[in-house]
Every structure is written in structure tokens, then in C-alpha cells.
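Me: I keep going back and forth on a fold encoding question. No explanation is needed for now; the record alone will do.

Assistant:
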Amino acid sequence: MTTFDITIRSQADLEEAVEDLGFVPLFKNSVPGFSVEERVAPGLWFTDKPGPWEWKGPVIRETGCAYGKFFQHKAVFISRKWFPDFANYRRDGYDFDARYDEGLAQWREKQLFDLLDASAPVLTGALKARGDYGPEGKKGFDTLIASLQAQCYVVISDFVYMQDKKGKPYGWGVAEYSTPEKSMGSAFTEAVYRREPAESYSRVLEQLRRILPGVEENALKKLLR
């Protein structure tokens, strides 16, 4: 595959797209056609048949990719090959503690990050309960967790489904959070700060040019902001 001109008919197709293209947004975004939502075969997008929504967890597990709200506050699959450069650019070369020490992260972000890092992998409900997030407790969980994803300090490492009495999964699936360091291991930790952040940005931008030929440069850069 060299462009995003594809049709996704199965979980295997989605896994192949993640591995070959490196960046695969789940939902529509500012670049028309650049999403699973727009490329999935008819009858598989939120129907009674298993489709991309049910494939998310298996794709993460099978490919070892990163998944989270990385482009314009929307979910994206990023392959093991490309996530270290993407994270290096978004982190601007800082691990979280260094970012906080430099005054570049909020105290509320640090509270949540430290709690998540100590508990990872951890399901949404458990994380909220341990941190006392909710109607009668701390506010802003969704905003904080989205910010930590956008900065690439947190990823969604799986989705866990409730099961009925017959062991059949049901519902939307509960996000399991982790850090890239813990979910991706040495493949991430040994590569993330290998380059200067500006070089990582250039590499990521070039990959987007390759898989999205004809898309204006400003549109590609908008995805990366």
C-alpha cells in the first residue's frame, strides 16, 4: 500500500493498513477520505455485524500499535514503526517528569499521569475511582486524559467488554489505559528520543505526504498540530 485509497473489509485489512501506512484515523477528519469510517465496506460501520468498533482491541493487540486521540482530538492507530517519531515530536523530546519540572505540564495532568503510570494497564472506571474523578469528586477527567493522549504520554492499550451469562461480549467496550513505555516496551523506549524532535516531525510529515499524495501541505500540517 502506498496511499489511503483502500477498502477495509475485515480486521486483517485494518491490521494491514496500520502496518503498511503507519497512520490510520478511525473517524472522519479534516482530510476527506482519510479514515476507517470512510473506507470501511458498507454494512460494517455500526451494524449488527462485527466491524471496526469491535476490531479496535484485537488490532492493537495483534499489531502492537498505539491507539489514542492523536489527530485533532480524534482516535488514530499509529504503527510501532512510526509512533516513536510521532511521540518524540509531540513530547518535544521531554519525558513527562522533565516536562512537568520545566513548567510545561499542569499539576492536574501530573496527578492523573502519576496515578495511571502506577496502575497501568488500568480500565477507565478503575482509574476514575482511584483518582476520585466523578460527579462528587475531581472534575475534568475526559479533558485531562485526552490531553495526555495528544502529548503521547498515554495510549489506549486495549478495550474490555462485559460478558453476558453465556460468555458473549456486549456493549461498547471499556478503554484500558497505559503508557507507551509499558504497553510497547523497548521497541518504544529505545527509539522515542533517538532523534531531535524537529527531525521526527519531518519524518512523520514525509510519511503523510507519501500516503496522502495530492493533499495540500497545510492540510497535512493541520493534522499534526
Summary: Residues 89 and 198 are 7 Å apart (CA to CA). The mean pLDDT is 94.
